[in-house]
Amino acid sequence: MADEDEIRGLVEIVYRYGVYDRQGQNAIAGIAKIGGTAIPFVLNVMQNPPKSDLHPRDLADSIQAIFTGLARTAPDALIDLMERDPDTEFMVVWALGNAKGKRSIDALVAALKHKNKWVRWAAVESLLRCRSEKAVDPLIDVLRDRSSMVKSPVVYAMAKQPMYRKRRALELLRKIVVSKSIGKNSPGLWKQAQQVVDIIERECPE
């Protein structure tokens, strides 16, 4: 079993080299292999981070990559973390798109109703990566979301992937099409919604 010093050393390598460097990738793989027992130590390092010369975006990607690796090996531990530590919700929800199992899907579906639109958006993107039949109806219901940012990935997925094109989505898609606000502020979403309406009407006639 890895000890705190070993895990801290691996995280410090990630902070130094990042996810786009082989040494950083190897360290991320090492943390993932340790699994759920690594999570408290990873959080401790994040709270008192070592110096890093990485660009802030690269550092954020690298930290997210740690959680993504853990989602593959210890999804239940990450879900438990999210439930007790709201500050980790976005990272965990995004990471769970790489997890497997019913509990991961259930956690992501629940996150579709989160008060923070960024967490809801991450839940949508993660569920789309999972490609679970269980997520189809909850993703269709996302078309009711008040944020165009949250709705957009679902509409674009409907255009590309038949599994998401259900006749029950038509009413919600038409509401997007008739929305003057969406037409003005999110023209790409508005145009794509109209195209999906046309496809569903053609594929799923009454």
Calculate the terminal CA-CA distance, rounded to whole Å: 60 Å
Percent in strands: under 5%
Topology as a string of helices (H) and strands (E): HHHHHHHHHHHHH
SS-based class: mainly alpha
What is the total tally of β strands?
Answer: 0
Can you tag this structure with a few keywords?
elongated; 206 residues
Characterise this structure.
- The protein is mainly alpha-helical.
- Helices cover 70% and strands 0% of the residues.
- Helix 1 (4-17) runs antiparallel to helix 2 (22-34).
- It is elongated, with a radius of gyration of 20 Å.
- The protein starts with a helix and ends with a helix.
Could you give a short description of this structure?
The chain is mostly helical. The protein has 13 helices and no strands.
Task: Summarize the topology.
Layout (H helix, E strand, L loop, with lengths): L3 H14 L4 H13 L4 H9 L8 H18 L1 H10 L4 H7 L6 H10 L5 H14 L5 H6 L6 H13 L9 H8 L2 H6 L1 H17 L3
Helix pairs in contact: 1-2, 2-4, 4-5, 4-6, 6-8, 7-8, 8-10, 10-13, 11-13
